[in-house]
Structure of Peptidoglycan-binding protein:
Amino acid sequence: MSTLADTYADQFKACAIKAEHAAEARAEAARILASRARYEAVAAHFPGMPWWVPGVLHSMECGLKFTRHLHNGDPLTARTVQVPKGRPKAGTPPFTWEESARDALVYDGLDKATDWSPGAALVAFENYNGTGYRKKGVPSPYLWSFTDQYRCGKYVADGRYDPLAVSRQCGCAALMKNLFQASA
C-alpha cells in the first residue's frame, strides 16, 4: 500500500523545474546555501534533521529574512500575532532567529521526525503549512510551485481560495532539487 510520502517521492523524482522559473529557483537555493551554517546550527538541536529543513522553511515563511519568525514570518521584535499566535511562549522579545526557529520546529513536531527522505520531507512541509490544498485535491503551491506539478490555485488569504491565482513563490520541491544538486 502506497503512502502519501511514497506518492510525493515519486512526484519529486519525476518533477521538473519550469524553464521560466529555473534561474529564480537556483538563485533562491544559492541564498539558502549562503546561510547554511545558521541552518546547521538550528538543525543540530534535532538529531537526524538535515540542515536544509530550516533553510527551506526559512525561504517559504520568511523570504530568508533573519528578522522574522520561522513560524509565520512575523517580526522577531514580539511574539507571533498570526497563526500560531503567541510564539515562542518562553523568553522575552526580541527573539533571535535561532531561538524562534527552534521553537517553530518543536511546535510543529518536526523535532520528532526521523525520515527526511524527499517524500517524507514534502509531507512534513505540507503539514507545516497546512493541508488545505490536499483536501481540495489540488497540488500545493507551497510544495510544487515552479515545477511542472503545479499550474494554479492558491489560498490568497487565510481560508480564501482562488482557483485561478498562481503562486509567485518558489516551492519546496524546486528548492530541494536545487539544494540537493548543489550539495552533490
Q: What stands out?
A: The mean pLDDT is 96.
